[in-house]
Design goal:
With 346 residues, this protein is mostly helical. 53% of the residues lie in helices and 6% in strands. It folds into two domains: 220 residues, Rossmann fold (3-Layer(aba) Sandwich), CATH 3.40.50.620; 92 residues, Orthogonal Bundle (Tyrosyl-Transfer RNA Synthetase), CATH 1.10.240.10. The protein binds adenosine-5'-tetraphosphate.
Length: 346
């Protein structure tokens, strides 16, 4: 059996306001993983253009996501932080994966169906092939672990299917080139903790999302303390006090969401939160939630503002990360070319 060194990869799209869901489901967990793993964190700007983007907004948002990574505590000197478009091997490997993935697999992707909506004929080919590029993002580093939110589970399963099919279809060549019985690892999705799917503050049945037209549906990482407080106070709830057991949250999606957010922000479980707040009315619980949200998020927003005032520094971080990422990605891509039988200069 081929063995792979543990390596973490994950990405965030620079497509709009980063929100509490992106933070709790992804970025906060990226920070934790730095202590135990080598990590590569990417601003996936090529994914962003699968939907229309204003170039000036995109430019600023790439820096903003980078600022969020740094402000949240990712160390770009110990790990790699970069933007995808500066490492051409992502697109190169994605083409190979376009030839590995089957149409039937991509036809099942729910994110494409959601984002393309009714006007599917008019969606970009890139939006359809998005999961192949995502598989390439991960596998160009032969990453073994990917921390993501719940919504990315299906794409991670596709990444494993692509890796498996590549390993099977080229097994003889993989062995011949000294890579044993598998060239790509079957990457593990790491979907864990109380906030793998943070819901909208206006509707407990909808995911908190950058593209929701209501700004009150989400807490943006750039919101100031007053805005955070206002959004939490206006969050939809029901009329009942908080239950004493997690079971009691089952049919109460909005209550469940606020308890999960509190738990994730304070690094405890929802059961712990209910132990302290059972019987509380929402007015009281929301005040407590405002306090923890402001305490955790306001310093990140302040730091993001400070970092955004120095774009030269952010661009230097991305340039340095990209140069280091290119070395690793080129190594994989050269091996892939050899395995496929392409002729390349040596
Ligand atoms: N609501 C969420 N709860 C938990 N995790 C979430 N993530 C996104 N929304 C939630 C996780 O954040 C990471 C980066 O996401 P992304 O920016 O690459 O893509 P996305 O999932 O398309 O983000 P949005 O906000 O949902 O954008 P739109 O509105 O365009 O659909 C991923 O790990 C994701 O799981």
């Amino acid at each position: 059996m081929a063995t792979f060194n543990e390596l973490v990869f994950s990405g965030v799209q620079p497509t709009g306001n980063l929100h509490l869901g992106n933070y709790l489901g992804a970025i906060k967990r990226f920070v934790t993983m730095q202590d135990t793993h080598e990590c590569i964190y990417c601003v996936v700007d090529m994914h962003a253009i699968t939907m229309p983007q204003d170039p000036k907004d995109l430019h600023r948002q790439i820096r903003e996501v980078t600022a969020a990574f740094l402000a949240a505590g990712i160390d770009p000197t110990r790990h790699i932080v970069f933007n995808q478009s500066q490492v051409p091997q992502h697109a190169e490997l994605a083409w190979v994966f376009n030839c590995v993935a089957r149409l039937g697999w991509l036809n099942r992707m729910t994110q494409f169906k959601d984002k393309a909506g009714k006007d599917r004929e008019n969606a970009s080919v890139g939006l359809y092939a998005y999961p192949d590029l995502m598989a390439a993002d991960i596998l160009v580093y032969r990453a073994t672990h990917v921390p993501v939110g719940e919504d990315q589970k299906q794409h991670l399963e596709l990444t494993r299917d692509i890796a498996q099919k590549f390993n099977n279809d080229w097994s003889a060549s993989i062995a011949e080139h000294g890579f044993g019985d598998a060239f790509f690892p079957l990457t593990e999705p790491m979907i864990a903790g109380p906030a793998t799917r943070v819901m909208s503050l206006r509707d407990g049945a909808k995911k908190m999302s950058k593209s929701d037209p209501s700004d009150y549906s989400r807490i943006n990482l750039t919101d100031d303390a007053d805005t955070i407080a206002q959004k939490i106070r206006k969050a939809k709830t029901d009329a009942e006090p908080l239950p004493s057991e997690v079971e009691g949250l089952k049919a109460r999606p909005e209550a469940d969401n606020l308890v999960a957010i509190y738990a994730a922000l304070t690094d405890v479980t929802p059961a712990d939160v209910l132990r302290d707040h059972a019987g509380s009315q929402f007015s009281g619980f929301k005040s407590a939630l405002v306090d923890v949200a402001v305490a955790k998020l306001a310093p990140i927003a302040d730091d993001m503002r400070r970092l955004m005032a120095d774009p030269g520094h952010i661009d230097a971080v991305l340039a340095d990360g990209s140069a280091r990422a290119r070395v690793l990605a080129a190594e994989t891509m050269n091996a892939v070319k050899d395995i496929l039988g392409f002729v390349r200069a040596r």
